[in-house]
Amino acid sequence: MSIENKVVVITGASSGIGAATAKLLASKGAKVVLGARREDRLQELSQTIGDNAVYQVTDVTDRAQVKALIDLAVSKFGRVDVLYNNAGTMPQGNLSDREYDKWQMMLNVNIMGVLNGIGEVLPIMQKQQDGLIITTDSVAGHVVYPASAVYNGTKYAVRAIMEGLRQEEKNHGIRSTIVSPGAVRTELVNTIGNTQIQAGISELMNADDSKGLALNPEDIANAVLFAIDQPKHVAISEVLVRPAQQEV
Fold first, then answer.
1. If you average pLDDT over residues 180-207, what whole number do you get?
2. Is 151 a catalytic residue?
3. What pTM was estimated for this model as a whole?
4. Rounded to an integer, what distance in angstroms lies between the CA atom of residue 166 and that of residue 136?
5. Distances in whole angstroms, Cα of residue 246 to Cα of each of 56, 68, 139, 209
6. Fewer CB within 10 Å, N- or C-terminus of the chain?
7. Confidence of residue 213 (pLDDT cuts 50, 70, 90)
8. Domain that holds residue 51
């Protein structure tokens, strides 16, 4: 699938991996449809990209808003070639902290947000008999570690959902890709509620590139581009991208 003139819907597009991916794909000729909650960031990003970008304020936990984002892509550009489910949250903490509201938020954003995107775009891609659905997962979907049980659980769930999607839709011309980053310098760190955990991860993120401890959003954007820029008979089922020195 050549990226030029492809219509790519991106959630979580206002910063970090989503914004970096939007800029990279647009620079290669894609038309990007940007969704996130922060309108000021979306407007700024859309203006930076230019005519090949449109945006819609989108909370992925609200199915009607996700539908509006997909509908915008179709009304503006006539189709959806790629959906990139990228929105996520990571309020780390121990199970003994009993942070029920944060647990529910993670389930809503990290799992239902992905399902809302899949559910709304599938009828369009089935009609097209063509499409690619990409979802940001995590190394945390492969390895469980302390103070991350619920986040790990959401990311393991995403892997299961995406594999089910692959099996169900492969005969309809629809491919699926999981992009699983390790440590990346993004604002996701700011969603960590436990201050001790946040401080430790922030220190890791602030290390310079030569130490190989954290990736930049552009590194993940390149992985997304790689998955998209494949011929139709090739499906990149998963890309696992770690900093060179990451242990887990």
1. 67
2. yes
3. 0.92
4. 15
5. 36, 39, 10, 12
6. C
7. confident
8. 7-240
